[in-house]
DNA sequence: TTGTACGCGTTATCAA
DNA sequence: TTGATAACGCGTACAA
């Protein structure tokens, strides 16, 4: 059924010539097959789904023609009837961040295992854009939403609305500040603790923290871990050693400038994430090359690109974002398949533990 | 219309209590609104689409209730009727490659501008998996396909079938070996020429080429550019200086091992792409640290991560993958909206020119 | 063993 | 100005 079939296909399409491109036939339907074979649509439908009530010869005829005509079942129609699209929407800040790319892989895997499609969209850290994406996805009737919210998100009403409408939303990586939402997150506090502890054990007494944006709750959680580590090892906490950045290179440069201007700058930094640490290292390269080898960094995110770097963090907190994507998707599917989502259900939280990874 | 509305929503959902979770109502419909207001569905539909034949008071009543009940139009149903899903499928080898991540951004932008959704899937360089993805996407009736084929793809029949069925396919970045397919690609030969020329002008006389997989046509195109540059500058072409790899680190290491074993190893390399150059540099770091500063690399792909590297290629060929994604999506949408796709149409090719980018 | 009828949410057409 | 009806592709309960 190679070339010949294709030509036949072409003829077939030419036959039902509809002028309007928007009404153009886009694929063979059960009806087409039924007409050709002089039988009813339901017989064709049953034949193709191997219904035992259909006689083998009939089945054979149907399957033969379906094959020749290259029939492809229309899942959209099937789902339409079921009132579900078997599609989940995935909203992330940025595809270029390998962390999210990995999480997507995990989510896609789980979704695929359950015959779900995934549609991905990026907020580019813009809450307004995020709102539009949610709206678009709801219009397209995704069965659920997987969201790593943009860093400046304040108003959670869109997501509340979504949940109340019966479309479950699972947050991952970046939980909302507000309580009451299902979420899958890393064990951020413990990870931060371990990273800081690693630096302390390496002998550092004065450790700075390049904190994440103040608009994100994770920033505080990680800061708390940093603080707990200092406490445990009887090091003083000094708020001057904590500076918040917004992920832009400029912000990190500016923070580093202020750090390095101090009378006694920190000898090590725990960074909210390693993309930030890389910018901080870049700053040292440009402005304080002599310090490069004296200052240690540790941060979240064991990025594949780290392997190529000469100057890199001494330790990373491996966040298992692939696993997080998997877990988030699993939780979402579970929620989707739950009975009676109207009933009150406890908020679900899943924590993925982090691993400390010393480099070199 | 905050909290109160939501509660109402809840009650609303509880009222039509259907046991079966698969038949559960998932959102307010036109019918619901029509029933409540004692009018026909068509009136409601027209009111919401601002049909001039509906009286302003009626429109107002409808819109008010639609708002209160938080009506969200069901695009799936709408598309179902129109026989199109306003969704395009995007198949790439790997999301972790920033090159594709950027291309996706470009494609998404253009698709979004035309109210199209994008569903993304990764082949992970596995043709079989790619086949399954195509099948799945066709079952879901995407309106068109954007594909960067996996490196080992030999049999193009799936895509032929797709095209003949009336679903346009645009290839990008990696065109098929076979002719006859629409594609958007970089000006690979010229890019390769410029990269090699750059190395020559830097004084190198013995330039190796770490070639891409032999299964990919682009590999030959880039090799041709390399060869043309040698020719132009009267340097001898030596097939021993060309070694093909398959993107794995092991393959690149092995190629470099053979290169460095030569009596006079190359003093510079033109790499099929910079991810390969990075592995080659990594090899030198481990095995020939002394040579690190003496050997130059140039390759395709100006990756954002390059900025953080100490040892990096001296030049990159900027492929404008964002632009390529845009162009590919544009071409696809144009093809989708074409009248009479049955008619013979010349194969469409778009070339994106590359820019040489010297680093540091 | 096969066919008929219906419904999913929406829009377009035609009738009232 | 509004309403009734058909249609999109499919599955299924029920009738023949």
Automatic annotation (TrEMBL), chains A, B:
<dbReference type="InterPro" id="IPR001761">
    <property type="entry name" value="Peripla_BP/Lac1_sug-bd_dom"/>
</dbReference>
<feature type="domain" description="HTH lacI-type">
    <location>
        <begin position="28"/>
        <end position="82"/>
    </location>
</feature>
<dbReference type="Pfam" id="PF00356">
    <property type="entry name" value="LacI"/>
</dbReference>
<keyword id="KW-0805">Transcription regulation</keyword>
<dbReference type="Pfam" id="PF00532">
    <property type="entry name" value="Peripla_BP_1"/>
</dbReference>
<dbReference type="InterPro" id="IPR010982">
    <property type="entry name" value="Lambda_DNA-bd_dom_sf"/>
</dbReference>
<protein>
    <submittedName>
        <fullName>LacI family transcriptional regulator</fullName>
    </submittedName>
</protein>
<dbReference type="InterPro" id="IPR028082">
    <property type="entry name" value="Peripla_BP_I"/>
</dbReference>
<dbReference type="InterPro" id="IPR000843">
    <property type="entry name" value="HTH_LacI"/>
</dbReference>
<keyword id="KW-0804">Transcription</keyword>
<keyword id="KW-0238">DNA-binding</keyword>
């Amino acid at each position: 059924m190679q070339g010949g079939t294709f030509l036949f296909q072409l003829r077939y399409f030419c036959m039902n010539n509809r002028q309007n491109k928007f009404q153009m036939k886009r694929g063979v339907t059960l009806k087409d097959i039924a007409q050709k074979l002089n039988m009813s649509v339901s017989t064709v439908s049953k034949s193709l789904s191997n219904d035992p009530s259909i006689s083998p010869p009939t089945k054979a005829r149907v399957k033969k023609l379906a094959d020749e005509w290259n029939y492809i079942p229309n899942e959209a129609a099937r789902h339409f009837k079921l009132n579900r699209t078997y599609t989940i929407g995935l909203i992330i800040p940025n595809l270029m961040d390998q962390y999210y790319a990995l999480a997507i892989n995990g989510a896609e895997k789980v979704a695929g295992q359950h015959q779900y499609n995934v549609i991905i969209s990026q907020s580019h850290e813009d809450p307004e854009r995020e709102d539009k994406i949610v709206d678009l996805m709801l219009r397209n009737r995704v069965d659920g939403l997987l969201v790593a919210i943009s860093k400046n998100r304040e108003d959670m009403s869109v997501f509340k609305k979504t949940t109340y409408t019966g479309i479950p939303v699972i947050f991952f990586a970046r939980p909302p500040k507000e309580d009451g939402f299902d979420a899958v997150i890393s064990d951020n506090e413990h990870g931060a603790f371990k990273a800081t502890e690693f630096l302390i054990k390496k002998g550092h007494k004065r450790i700075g923290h390049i904190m994440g944006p103040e608009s994100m709750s994770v920033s505080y959680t990680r800061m708390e871990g940093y603080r707990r580590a200092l406490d445990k090892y009887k090091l003083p906490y000094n708020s001057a050693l904590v500076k918040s950045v917004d992920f832009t290179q400029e912000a990190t440069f500016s923070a580093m400038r202020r750090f390095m201007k101090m009378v006694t700058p920190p000898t090590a930094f725990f960074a909210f994430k390693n993309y930030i640490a890389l910018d901080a290292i870049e700053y040292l390269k440009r402005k304080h090359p002599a310090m490069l080898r004296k200052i240690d960094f540790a941060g979240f995110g064991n990025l594949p690109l780290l392997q190529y770097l000469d100057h890199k963090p001494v330790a990373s907190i491996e966040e298992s974002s692939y696993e997080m994507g998997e877990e988030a998707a699993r939780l979402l599917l579970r929620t989707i398949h739950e009975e009676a989502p109207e009933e009150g259900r406890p908020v679900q939280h899943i924590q993925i533990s982090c691993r400390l990874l010393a480099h070199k």
